[in-house]
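Quick start: what a row looks like.
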Amino acid sequence: MKQVFNILILIGMHTNAFSQSWVDSTLYPFENKFLRLEAGTMHYVDEGSGEIILFVHGTPTWSFLYRDFIQELSQDYRCIAIDHLGFGLSEKPDSVPGTPEWHAQNLSEFIQKLDLQNITLVVHDFGGPIGLAAGIANSERIKKVVLFNTWLWATAHKEEAQKIDKTINSGLGKFLYLNLNFSPKVLLKKGFADKSNLSKDVHQHYIKPFPNKTSRIPLLNLAKALVGSSEWYQKQWEQFDSLANKEFLILWGRKDEFITLENLQKWQERLPKTKTVELDCGHFVQEEKTNEAIKEIQSFMKE
């Protein structure tokens, strides 16, 4: 019965994904796949064959962020891109923690259930602490790491983070996130150095996964975790040695107003031999400097 129940869930999830008329198959031309985890059903893309590249998104994005990377790199590699639970086409379970540590546990379970090995881990934004924590827990499965703008250390002492945290935990912050869908509508656009790089069609693909207040709770939960999970970030940072001996590539948008060059410097101090490519763009390098970033990853994979 349990197996039949799981099959019915997966059929339902497939139907749900294909019924999303807002997903433009010319922009996102991938087969939708689903994996049942303890916390819910995760949507993912699995294209191509060969060495594995695992793409991990942050907020308020989903695997759509890596669509051009998947199309290009899947010609030579097996490209897997997940949607965190509560994001994209994944299930949006009710009453879950929604913290980065919770998402990291889900990703770790995903890696183990698919028995992924020799992974090149690609992370960005909140996907950094989420993906790197899962990488630390499965360090023997990780071969290389690509870092887009992200962090992995305590945030509570940062003045800017404290200001954001105060707003997010206020009544106004909750209203903006849940009633106005503020994160994908406003903050995402603010993350672009050149707003013309965000077309209306592409922007809609980041807005429409969150059609109502309930669906936006995962966005609010991660925003609260910027400072709320500070101690957990620091704990991962202190355990980072298990990954630090891997090969790294840093691709950094130097005009990022959210995760600034100060964060890049911290990575460079920790990984002094790592190649860094600074790109003239904002937070969403994948959207603003797509071709440049893909070429750097191609070179990195061939080294």
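That is the whole record. Residues 1-19 have pLDDT under 50 and may be disordered. The domain at 2-302 is CATH 3.40.50.1820 (Rossmann fold).
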